[in-house]
Design brief:
Helix content of chain A: over 70%
Strand content of chain B: under 5%
Distance between the termini of chain B: 46 Å
Helix content of chain B: 55-70%
Number of strands of chain A: 0
Structural class of chain A: mainly alpha
CATH architecture of chain A: Up-down Bundle
Distance between the termini of chain A: 48 Å
CATH topology of chain B: Cytochrome C Oxidase, Chain A
Order of helices and strands of chain B: HHEEHHHHHHHHHH
Shape of chain A: elongated
CATH superfamily of chain A: Cytochrome c oxidase, subunit III, four-helix bundle
Radius of gyration of chain B: 24 Å
Strand order of the largest sheet of chain B: 1-2
Number of helices of chain A: 5
Number of domains of chain B: 1
Largest interface: A-B, 34 and 36 residues
Structural class of chain B: mainly alpha
Oligomer: heterodimer
Order of helices and strands of chain A: HHHHH
Shape of chain B: globular
CATH topology of chain A: Four Helix Bundle (Hemerythrin (Met), subunit A)
Chain lengths: 185, 407
């Protein structure tokens, strides 16, 4: 399957799409940089849950890497894809629990008690989570197709595309997490 | 807005990947018509800049609907302060203009591409400096990302930063001038066929030049202070980007109409449309420069409340007259367009004797455009009046003759 037209174009489409998504988050994070240089920027302690979610998404990338290796060897990758899916769901839950912790810490998205630093934290994590939703859907589709034995040694484009996008979401989160840790300090 | 950005993104993705992967045999990137190059680079600009607009609008939606304070601060309505504190309106300007400047080139670049193609066909000459044209497109696209600050010179920006943006802005004059010189060199001593499409491309060169000159004044952070937010700005960008893009669009419509509908548009109505549009458009936007220099601010819905602008009223009346006439004449174009779809004279396969691939398709439309195999390309699209050739045009599908050199 290497080098076929469909293979190349799908990957290019995905890569250019990811460049677009990168620009979206570059816009949001540069907004944080511009705003934080101004007066009245408050510091926020990152919720514990965000550390857990970071761990979960890194782990999910690793299981997905193993899945790709399995399918290349001709072994069913379903177990590892499902693991990634579950870890991805776990990531999403941890993010939502992180917001819960933020609220109990007195940091709000809106209203009189909110301030831009907190609002940015909510909006950026929400925007990332929406992109993760797309990744979860494609992991679900890959799981179903893998269970139906649609992927072979020669034809595993679906798994490849899903894992490119999922690793991208992983790296994107690592960037956002480190960036937010630093800029909300 | 989100759907608009997503759809423009998907359209852009399609253009980029199609142009990179699905070219016919022999169609190397250096044999692409300049129209396709322009669309390719426009798509790249869109993919890189629209997501930033999306991020700006996302924050705006949160401010307007959910009560966050990204952009809003210290707003008093009816004597009562809103709860919004700590937002920065300048932040919106930064995010907006980071899209906003590439956006004007998203509008303009396709017109540049169309003009290059139509001009070469109707000059019966190869486009002057093909590679320079492509490089200029790329340079304009690149520079468009580092000049957004020139829309924000008087927002309290650090004067040093202002001078940096002045520098990058004035750099754009170089690739733009390359394009204008190449257009003029293409026209120089050409056997020009004055079709309506050709007239619009010549009109394009005129507006691109006159509008570009005032850009030098606005791009300078010191000179900009005097004319900021006046009619000078309105005159500048409507001529350089509005008129130019619309002329490019009209040129494209008149040129490719026979391909779209198999019939020709009426030439005489086309000439009438061009001349009245051209005169009226300058009549509207040229006097605006003087209004701006006299200090008339833009974005006021009426100027008659301010006695100091009373002397300028007659100029505004003149502008209004030109605008009404220029607007009405567009109905001639609309009539010509729809009348010609049904009643126009039947077009031949290649009415402009053009080299590009679309003119090798049969007149009747069919799935896949060509019956049988898609054609192979053997040469670049600008072999017009090639010395030693029998005809003054050689379509791209024609193989090189023995001993013939590629351009």
């Amino acid at each position: 399957m290497e080098g076929t037209l469909k293979n190349n174009t799908s990957k290019q489409l995905l890569w250019i799409g990811m460049i677009g998504i990168t620009m979206f988050f570059a816009g949001l994070t540069s907004a944080v940089i511009v705003r934080s240089a101004d007066r009245g920027w408050e510091s926020i302690i990152m919720p514990q849950w965000f550390w857990y979610s970071t761990f979960a998404i890194v782990l999910s990338s690793i299981t997905l890497m193993i899945a790709k290796r399995q399918v290349k060897k001709g072994i069913s990758p379903t177990f590892y894809i499902v693991s990634s899916l579950i870890l991805g769901l776990l990531f999403s839950c941890f993010q939502i629990m992180g917001w819960g912790q933020l609220v109990s810490d007195g940091i709000f998205l809106t209203g009189e008690k909110s301030h831009p630093a907190g609002s940015f934290l909510y909006v950026i994590t929400l925007a990332h989570l929406i992109h993760v939703l797309g990744g979860l859907i494609s992991l679900l589709v890959t799981t179903i197709k893998s269970a139906q034995v649609k992927y072979t040694k020669k034809n595993y484009l679906g798994i490849e595309l899903t894992s490119i996008y999922w690793h991208f979401l992983d790296v994107l989160w690592l960037y956002l997490f480190v960036f937010l840790l630093y800029s909300l300090k | 807005m989100t759907l608009f950005v997503v759809s423009s993104l998907l359209g852009g993705l399609n253009y980029i990947v199609t142009i990179l992967n699905l070219r016919t045999k022999g169609m190397s990137m250096s044999r692409l018509p300049l129209t396709i190059w322009a669309i390719f680079i426009t798509a790249i600009l869109g993919v890189l800049s629209f997501p930033v607009l999306l991020s700006a609008c996302l924050l705006l939606v949160f401010d307007r609907t959910f009560g966050t304070s990204f952009y809003l601060s210290d707003i008093i309505i009816g004597g009562e302060a809103l709860h919004h504190t700590g937002g920065s309106p300048i932040l919106f300007e930064h995010l907006f203009w980071f899209l906003g400047h590439p956006e004007v080139y998203i509008i303009l670049l396709p017109a540049l591409g169309i003009v290059s193609e139509v001009m070469s066909v109707n000059s019966r000459k190869p486009i002057f400096g093909y590679k320079a044209m492509v490089l200029a497109l790329i340079a304009i696209a690149f520079l468009s990302f580092i000049v957004w600050g020139h829309h924000m010179f008087i927002t309290g920006m650090d004067p040093f930063l202002g001078s940096v943006f002045t520098f990058t802005t004035l750099l754009i004059a170089i690739p733009s001038a390359v394009k204008v010189f190449n257009y003029l060199a293409t026209l120089w001593k050409a056997s020009i066929r004055f079709t309506p499409a050709m007239l619009f491309t010549i009109g394009f060169v005129s507006t691109f030049l006159t509008g570009g000159l005032t850009g030098l004044i606005l791009g300078d952070s010191a000179l900009d202070i005097n004319v900021h937010d006046t009619y000078f700005v309105v005159g500048h960008f409507h001529i350089v980007m509005g008129l130019s893009a619309i002329y490019g669009m009209f040129a494209g419509v008149y040129h490719w109409f026979p391909k779209m509908y198999g019939r020709m548009m009426n030439k005489k109505l086309g000439y009438l449309h061009f001349w009245v549009t051209f005169i009226c458009a300058y009549g509207v936007f040229f006097p605006m420069h003087f209004l701006g220099l006299a200090g008339l601010p833009r974005r006021y819905y009426t100027n008659s409340n301010f006695p100091m602008f009373d002397e300028l009223t007659d100029i505004n009346q003149l502008i209004t007259t030109f605008a009404i006439v220029g607007g009405l004449i567009q109905f001639i174009f609309v009539f010509n367009f729809f009348y010609s779809i049904f009643k126009g004279t039947k077009a031949t396969k290649n009415p402009w004797e053009s080299n590009t691939l679309e003119w090798t398709t049969p007149i009747e439309r069919m799935h896949g455009n060509w019956p049988g195999e898609i054609p192979t390309v053997h040469r670049w699209p600008y072999d017009y009046s090639k010395p030693g050739a029998e005809k003054d045009f050689i379509p791209q599908t024609e193989p090189l003759k023995e001993g013939e050199e590629e351009h």
